Amino acid sequence: MAKLSHVDSDGKARMVDVSGKKETEREAVASGRVTMAAGTYALIRGGQGPKGDIFTVAKIAGIMAAKKTHDLIPLCHPLAITHVDVEFRFDDAGHTVEILSTVRTKGQTGVEMEALTSAAVAGLTIYDMCKAVDKGIELGPFFLLEKSGGKSGTYKRKAS
């Protein structure tokens, strides 16, 4: 069975020492969903909502969140992120906005947490931009779709 990397031999939390790890190109893609009432979805589908341009604000929030992940998640390393992109896909039948966040770096540790944080904060921003008309908006699930680089290589989530 695999060991938890952020726990020492005594079971205490620790930051992983990456100083001996090889620097490689790394990328992670995370996904999240925001589901809302049909009326709310119709209202924002074009991007405009009660507080303005929802998807531009959510994209900027997702980019900023990726860059600040080490300030939000204990034991995450600060990283020199080289690229962040946040995309939105629309499911008209399900009244759902899918968020795809892609993060890249060249470094000694991966960017999975940055991609997940980016997607989650973009989703929270959509909620914030729409809560005046729909407090019942649902967030999630959020998950890692794929990652590449580093010692563990490539991971791709199996379709569910």
How is this structure best described in words?
This protein has 160 residues and is α+β, with helices and mostly antiparallel strands. 34% of the residues are buried. The strands form two sheets. A five-stranded antiparallel sheet has the order 4-5-1-6-7, covered by helices on one side. Strands 2-3 form a two-stranded antiparallel sheet. The longest helix is centred in the C-terminal third of the chain and has 19 residues, at 112-130. The chain is built from four helices and seven strands, in the order βαββααββαββ. It has a single domain, classed as 2-Layer Sandwich (Alpha-Beta Plaits). Helix 2 (54-67) runs antiparallel to helix 4.
- CATH fold node name: Alpha-Beta Plaits
The total of helices stands at 4
CATH class group: Alpha Beta
The secondary-structure class comes to alpha+beta
How do the helices and strands follow one another from N- to C-terminus?
Answer: EHEEHHEEHEE
Q: Quick one: how many beta strands?
A: 7
Assign the CATH architecture: 2-Layer Sandwich
Mean model confidence by pLDDT: 93
**What percentage of amino acids are in beta strands?**
25-35%
The value of Rg in angstroms is 17 Å
Spans of at least 5 consecutive residues with low confidence: none
**How would you sum up the major sheet?**
5 strands, antiparallel
Distance between the termini: 24 Å
Task: Provide the CATH superfamily.
Answer: Molybdopterin cofactor biosynthesis C (MoaC) domain
